[in-house]
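Troubleshooting: if your tokenizer reports a length mismatch, compare your output against this known-good record of 281 residues.
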Amino acid sequence: MTQPTPYPQHTALSLAASGVPVLPLRRGKVPFGNCTTCADNACGGRPNMKTPGPCRCPGVCHAWAAATTDPAVIVSPAWAAAWRRAVCVGYHPGGAGLTVVDLDDADAIAWARTALPATRTVPTTRGQHWIYRGAMTSRNAVRPGVDVKSTMAYARYLGPGTGAMADLPDAVRALAVKAPSPARPTPVTVPSGSEGGECPHRTPAYLERGLAMAVQCITEASSAVHATVYRTFLAVLSRHGRCGCLTDAHVARLFAAAQAKGETARHCADAWSNARTTLGL
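Known-good structure output:
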């Protein structure tokens, strides 16, 4: 008598047939541990690889990197024990060309509804998964209650969801961009009586050249405009934010360049304020 296919394995086969790399998840919604051969990545491992797929051992090893679309692997004896213990199916979003914005609570969902374009939505235990078409770098805790799962990450499969899937927007890509570490300011000794005079450590030509480069950087941005604007503001402020040589006219030039790329005045003001806060200004 043929034994029935376990439910998680049946779901995994269906997903794999549609091109979504899958793996079993055990209690706690986490991957199974590496086999003894792969323990502590003794086999060389796959955690730093950029494509999914098992290592040479046949087991369910290396978390997201074990995800596969090969039905022969999914039903293999080596995976059978894992499926019998699995509580749900995981998948590698990046391997399927997808990005999951994991919204963990009501506040995160409210933020997404105002900040991100609508897309396919899947209910979770406490919040929602918003799924976009396109892969990107994964990063956890990009803001309170929000994780981004795509390449080198796994997500729990909770159903097909509802709504049309939108293309991955720059607003989501920008979430994974880490703000540069605050630049250590150059010590400045201001001679007596120089207050209100020229910048004590940069010439006007240096400032002008820096502003021109900043405007060019924003103007030439072809993607991730939000992140580019923030990084550029941060760079300008790290050079000249403490010496008092930046004027309202200089700031207006930067804002105008950003707004010409589609940024709102409010976003410019927020990015400038966030950069100042990062630098402790």
